Amino acid sequence: MIQNLSDKLTYSEDDWHVMEDAHIKACEILGLHPAYYEHKDRLARTIMSLFNKGTRDYQIIASLAAHRETIYQRVIEMPDNLMRKLECPTCGTFYLRRPYNVQNHTLIQCKSCARVLARWSELEAEFT
User: Fold this and answer.
1) Which of 58, 89, 96, 109 would bridge 21 by S-S if both were Cys, CB 3.0 to 4.6 A apart?
2) Looking at the structure, do residues 64 and 11 belong to the same domain, yes or no?
3) Quick one: pLDDT at residue 60?
């Protein structure tokens, strides 16, 4: 039993190569050097998380990780007033439930706790 748990918590040499290739490719997509990127550790954790969820193609992992990193950078660069508008006052997360067929009157909710944050038209006005 302990051996099986240990096997699940470790990576093979091939696993490390897939994750390393994904890291290099993600940095290439982002136009950054893998060794000197300021947030290389965060990017590596994202890659490991994607790998742990079963994705094994380094190009897919790299593409997803680079996309997440781009979104994260955009969120960091948002003005404070916009960040406060997107932050849920109940649970403090920034995860929004994205409804289909969004219209101006559509209610936007927190994905974590379902609190209504605003109408779509109000959020859209903040971005324009």
Assistant:
1) 58
2) yes
3) 97
- Give the confidence band of 81 by pLDDT, cuts at 50, 70, 90: low
Q: Which domain holds residue 16?
A: 2-77
User: Are both 23 and 70 inside the same structural domain?
Assistant: yes
What's the confidence (pLDDT) of residue 123?
A: 77
Cα separation, 73 vs 33, whole angstroms = 16
The DSSP secondary structure of 95-113, one letter per residue, reads PEE--SS--TTPEEEETTT
Let me know whether 73 and 121 are in one domain: no
- Kindly report which listed range (3-7, 47-51, 74-78) carries the lowest average pLDDT score: 3-7
Query: Are 63 and 93 in a shared domain?
Result: no
CB 18 within 8 A of CB 59: no
Q: Cα torsion for 69, 70, 76, 80, to the nearest 10°?
A: -150
* CA-based nearest residue to 28, from 69, 62, 74, 72: 62
